[in-house]
Amino acid sequence: MTSMTKQQYSELRQRLLSDKERLENQLESREDTNKELSLRDSTGELSAADNHPADVGTEVFERGRDLAIQETLERELEQIDSALQRMDQGEYGTCAECGRDIPYERLEALPYTAYCLEHTPRKDINDNRPVEEDVMTPPPSGAGVNRQAADGKFDDAGAWDAVEDYGTSTSPGMSIKPGQDDYKKNV
Fold first, then answer.
1. DSSP label at 13?
2. What segments bear the compositional bias annotation Basic and acidic residues (predicted)?
3. How many angstroms separate the CA atoms of 53 and 69, rounded?
4. Are 16 and 59 in contact, with CB atoms under 8 Å apart?
5. Can you give the residue ranges of every domain in the chain?
6. Given CB 3.0 to 4.6 Å as the disulfide criterion, which of 61, 77, 136, 147 pairs with 23?
7. DSSP bridge partners of 94
8. Residues 6 or more apart in contact with residue 3 via CB below 8 angstroms
9. pLDDT digits (tens, 9 = 90+) for 30-79
């Protein structure tokens, strides 16, 4: 056991037990969202053909979000169970990597951690990118107004200024009204 006081150790144990109970209750209440059901069964629709694609997209997004929340809760519960097991074995509060004491402040923040700050496993960002990016044209460098000015493009605010030079329906060439002499000569 680490250099924690018995009261600190007891407080952390109670917090872990409390968090475990909370997570188990959340997971139990989520069991009625069965991930084994097909999308049609889970939405209660007879067919997806009469739905707008955005409606189906929303359902798929909601389902994916629910599954991600479920996985996060399950992972946290596993970490809490592991921490309680380390407490029972007398290994709680020591880093699984280097064996040094984990500071109490860290355990207060993450009572289920098994690592000191220095040896926390890194969660590297996956470098795998979607295959579509191999054939996409990269956007022009720069952003916003500066990019538009550099590319000779305009936004809604500058649109009139850019096309005004080309004339309008009231330009001099279009100002001849029926009944005027010039109009009659051209007809």
1. H
2. 17-43
3. 24
4. no
5. 6-121
6. 77
7. 101
8. 101
9. 765 555 555 555 556 655 566 666 777 788 888 888 888 889 999 999 99
Please give the helix or strand (H or E) that residue 104 lies within, else none: helix 104-109
Q: Which residues pair with 101 in a beta bridge?
A: 94
pTM of the shown model: 0.57
Residue appearing with tokens 């707008």:
52
CA distance 91 to 133: 47
Query: With the CA atoms of 8, 14, 19 and 24 taken in that order, what torsion angle do they form, in degrees rounded to the nearest 10?
Result: 150
Q: Could you give phi then psi for residue 64, rounded to 5 degrees?
A: -65, -40
Is residue 12 predicted with pLDDT exceeding 90? yes
Joined tokens for residue 187: 């007809």
C-alpha–C-alpha distance, residues 173 and 175, integer Å: 6
Q: Specify the pLDDT at position 160.
A: 72
Spatial distance between the Cα atoms of 9 and 97, rounded to a whole number of angstroms: 21
Question: What class has domain 6-121?
Answer: mainly alpha
Residue of 105, 88, 78, 98 whose CA lies nearest to 4: 105
Q: How far is CA 185 from the centre of its chain?
A: 70
Specify the residue for token string 């009204």: 177
